[in-house]
Amino acid sequence: MKRILLLLCLLLSACAPFVSPQEAVQPLPTALIDPSYPTVESAPAAAVQTSSGINVSATRAWRDGKDVNAEVCFTLIDASDWSIWSANLQYADVVILDFASTLLSVQEPLEGQSGVRCDILSFFNVPPDADLSSVTITIDAIAAPPRAEEYCTIYMPKIQQTLNERGIAIVLGCVDSNGVQVMQILSRPDIMSQEEAEQIVYSDEFYTVRGPWAFTFNLGQ
Question: Residue 146, preceding bond cis, omega within 30 degrees?
Fold first, then answer.
């Protein structure tokens, strides 16, 4: 009888699955719980900055997780489609150039009165442990890139005058293209390629106002 019981025990042991010592002590996976990202709001040290005849104001900035946002408004010098063209965020030795702009409101300019546009600027992927106790948001330029027909109706006289003042022998004119007046380069110096002439004529300097307008906030450590 003892032999039969021993044989049964050996058979059951042989059929049981093998478990290595390492597998036996491995802990079960657990969910990773990250601490909450910071959320801080602040008013700027100086709410209004003026440069190149343009007033830019910042009412507030706030830190929301990995994003830093700022609510800014700027004066519109005419009815063109002005927007923030270049901006950056700086803290310590880090400069973030990538940003997005979301329109909040537009008050069109009236006779004798400038308009106002308000946007939310957003800078992304700011480390949650970054020290933002002194963070500066700088708007470097605002611009109103013209539509093709606006070169003839608005910009061509200004561009031609600038070329003449600089002694650049480029002559501009407008031609009809499918019922729309389109600016073209009628003549240029022989030593200048068409591409070089177009780079001069269509430079963003003719529809850009440069600052800078800088605002400093305390968004916590």
Answer: no
Q: Which two tokens stand for residue 175?
A: 């031609």
Cross-strand pairs, 214: 138
Residues shown for the chain = 221
Residue 75 exposure: Cα atoms within 13 Å on the Cβ side? 16
SS3 29: coil
| Cβ proximity of 90 and 70 under 8 Å | no
Q: What span, in angstroms and rounded, lies between the C-alpha atoms of 32 and 167?
A: 67
Give the position of tokens 């308000």.
118
- Pairing type for strands 100-107 and 171-177 reads unpaired
Low-confidence spans in the chain with pLDDT less than 70:
1-38
Q: What is the β-pairing status of strands 48-51 and 54-64?
A: antiparallel
Tell me the three state secondary structure of residue 185: strand
Measured CA angle at 108 (ends 208, 181), to 5 deg? 60
- Listed residue (51, 20, 117, 133) closest to 78, CA to CA: 117
Instruction: Please calculate the CA angle 176-177-181 and round it to the nearest 5 degrees.
Output: 50
Domains and CATH numbers, the chain: 39-145+208-217 (2.60.40.1630), 150-207 (no CATH)
Q: Where are the alpha helices (DSSP H) in the chain?
A: 2-15, 21-25, 150, 156-165, 194-201
From CA 210, how far away is CA 217, in angstroms rounded? 22
Cα three-residue angle 135-137-140, rounded to 5 degrees = 150
**Rounded to two decimals, what is the model's pTM?**
0.70
Q: Retrieve residue 65's tokens.
A: 């997780």
